[in-house]
Amino acid sequence: MLSNSETANNPEIRTKYPLLSMAMLSAATAQIRNMASNGGNLLQRTRCPYFFETSMPCNKRKPGSGCGALNGMNSNHAIFGYSEHCIATNPSDMCVALAAIGATVEVHKPDGDSRMIEFDDFHRLPGNQPEKDTTLIKGELITAIHLPKPEFSDCYYYLKIRERSSYAYALISVAAGLEVKDGVITKAGLAMGGVAHKPWKLTKAEEFLSGKKPTLSNFEAVAELAMDGAKPFEANKYKVEMGEKAIVRALTQAYERKV
Ligand SMILES: Cc1cc2nc3c(=O)[nH]c(=O)nc-3n(C[C@H](O)[C@H](O)[C@H](O)COP(=O)(O)OP(=O)(O)OC[C@H]3O[C@@H](n4cnc5c(N)ncnc54)[C@H](O)[C@@H]3O)c2cc1C
Ligand code: SF4
């Protein structure tokens, strides 16, 4: 029920989950954040222009009508996890941080019971049902977002690259959190926005960083690993290089908070 502003500026969130606060404060504008609910942000739909342009085909809006973006304007579209049915991206900033942190979503089911959904399982890839953005079942109500015990409160950064500094969604974003002890990374939380139909958790990259030193060469190696397997279109090839550099920068900025 809280607004994005209330959550991002809550003193406990600011001190214990500053990565989440930083990501939320990068979204939209102050006016929109004051109105946007956390439940609504979890369920906001893609900004693909064909989704809004009702004279154009769009499988997400009208299943079976085709995908206008596939051979159309797709410079802002996905480079990972898409299908021939939909190549859209998820636009949320908050959700990228929640993916990096490893949140859980609690939902109230129509039969009166509750269930918990791991954040990485909450949003879905398009497959052959792009009209479905999440794994919610009809009638379910989001009642809470659970956060794990506080981590990454010293080393964190949310890097959002966008076409203008306000009222704009991410072309690419990176949520990076590090736990560093005695000069070694003991845990990493890493996720990207603007690259897939869902917040893109970089599990292999997180595992790679664990036990490594927070050096530029390790950050460069993990960025290359994270972008491995990207399948861009002609118009969004820029996202591969931008994504790699954004990961290095977000990790560097995160670590520099500590030193
Ligand atoms: C111009 C503009 C720019 C924006 N830029 C950004 C940006 O850069 N980054 C970003 O992250 N976001 C951005 N947003 C999105 C914004 O931050 C809001 O998150 C989004 O508009 C959702 O708004 P809302 O809370 O009013 O949700 P609503 O529109 O009220 O809800 C969205 C959907 O979720 C459902 N819903 C809401 N709460 C629940 C619940 N508890 N359980 C089940 N279903 C629920 C509603 O029924 C509805 O279907 C932007 C929005 C605009 C208009
Ligand atoms: S990318 Fe997805 S949302 Fe955009 S036109 Fe294709 S089906 Fe619709």
UniProtKB/TrEMBL annotation:
<protein>
    <recommendedName>
        <fullName>CO dehydrogenase flavoprotein C-terminal domain-containing protein</fullName>
    </recommendedName>
</protein>
<dbReference type="Pfam" id="PF00941">
    <property type="entry name" value="FAD_binding_5"/>
</dbReference>
<dbReference type="InterPro" id="IPR005107">
    <property type="entry name" value="CO_DH_flav_C"/>
</dbReference>
<dbReference type="InterPro" id="IPR002346">
    <property type="entry name" value="Mopterin_DH_FAD-bd"/>
</dbReference>
<dbReference type="GO" id="GO:0050660">
    <property type="term" value="F:flavin adenine dinucleotide binding"/>
</dbReference>
<dbReference type="InterPro" id="IPR051312">
    <property type="entry name" value="Diverse_Substr_Oxidored"/>
</dbReference>
<dbReference type="InterPro" id="IPR016169">
    <property type="entry name" value="FAD-bd_PCMH_sub2"/>
</dbReference>
<feature type="domain" description="CO dehydrogenase flavoprotein C-terminal">
    <location>
        <begin position="156"/>
        <end position="254"/>
    </location>
</feature>
<dbReference type="InterPro" id="IPR036318">
    <property type="entry name" value="FAD-bd_PCMH-like_sf"/>
</dbReference>
<dbReference type="GO" id="GO:0016491">
    <property type="term" value="F:oxidoreductase activity"/>
</dbReference>
<dbReference type="Pfam" id="PF03450">
    <property type="entry name" value="CO_deh_flav_C"/>
</dbReference>
<dbReference type="InterPro" id="IPR036683">
    <property type="entry name" value="CO_DH_flav_C_dom_sf"/>
</dbReference>
